[in-house]
Design brief:
The chain has one domain: Zn-dependent exopeptidases (Aminopeptidase, 3-Layer(aba) Sandwich). It is built from 7 helices and 8 strands; from the N terminus they run αβββαβαββαβαβαα. The strands form 2 sheets. Strands 4-3-5-8-6-7 form a 6-stranded mixed beta sheet, sandwiched between helices. It has a two-stranded antiparallel ribbon with strand order 1-2. The longest helix has 29 residues. It is globular and about 40 Å long.
């Protein structure tokens, strides 16, 4: 309490510049997010999918699926100034076969195909990105993407069909227990697809050159992945887990990276011939 006759001291108010700047920044960010959300909702209503691209830009591609369908996001950690080359700006789906409850085949040591598929697929993803391509992964961890085999394959097919990608690369491992001496890669393409055949041949030529093998490109008409979408698709059997020596090599990161580089070289060769 003040004594009679004394003046009540004045309070001094100072502007907190940092707090004001923070508040203004928060308001601006909220406005940007609101506008972006409105645009995304508009695109969804018009049957479009907004996919993040290099340099913070957005690639909008028409899709034919329902509004409830989801395309896995393109990895946003791509260089703003992507290098030139045949793969620069290409949109590529990379499919790591099997996963989760579906291990695929296995080798004498017990290694699971799905684990090796994912390792190679992630190296392919990294190599493609380093060359300026955009990548959609059907899976990026050890899980399946469906509750059953049929649901898993349907989900992969839906991703491929909605992606609008230029090509599809599906990674697998082979096995032939009747003859454990069989080794080497091979590629599969959809029977009747001329561009699929060209892609599969370009990839196997590159793998043979890199690994010193003599694998071939073969047509199939019974594989869901190859029948998904209208874009060229190659299923790469990287080697035989039934062969002990090759199984050991396929578990080595350096060998996996060599396979990944060769696959990407083959994809680049394919585009250079178009």
């Amino acid at each position: 309490m003040n004594k009679p006759g004394t003046k009540k001291p004045r309070r001094r108010y100072r502007l907190n510049v940092k707090k004001m700047a923070g508040a203004l920044l928060t308001t601006a960010l909220f406005a940007v997010v609101t506008v972006a959300a409105a645009i995304a909702l508009k695109n969804a209503a018009e049957g479009e999918a907004a996919l993040p691209a290099a340099g913070g830009l957005t690639v909008t591609r028409k899709v034919t699926a329902s509004a409830t369908s989801v395309i896995p996001p393109i990895d946003s950690e791509q260089a703003a100034s992507a290098p030139g080359g045949e793969l620069s700006g290409r949109l590529i789906v990379v499919d790591a076969g099997h996963g989760g409850f579906d291990p695929g085949t296995s080798g004498p040591s017990g290694v699971r195909e799905d684990e090796l598929n994912l390792a190679v697929a992630q190296y392919v993803q990294a190599e493609l990105k380093s060359r300026g391509a955009q990548v959609i992964m059907t899976r990026n961890d050890g899980s399946a993407i469906g509750d059953s085999k049929s649901a898993d394959m349907a989900a992969r097919r839906r991703i491929i069909e909605q992606s609008g990608s230029d090509i599809v690369i599906s990674i697998h491992m082979n096995s032939f227990e009747d003859d454990p001496g069989v080794s080497g890669p091979l590629t599969l393409f959809m029977a009747g697809s001329q561009r699929g055949k060209l892609l599969a041949q370009a990839v196997i030529d590159s793998l043979n050159a890199a690994l010193g093998t003599d694998g071939s490109a073969r047509a199939r008409d019974d594989l869901i992945i190859l029948k998904s979408g209208s874009q060229p698709c190659v299923l790469v059997e990287c080697g035989y887990l039934s062969n002990r020596e090759e199984e050991a090599r396929l578990q080595q990161p350096d060998y996996q990276k060599k396979i990944a580089r060769a696959i990407c070289d083959g994809a680049g060769d394919f585009f250079s011939r178009q």
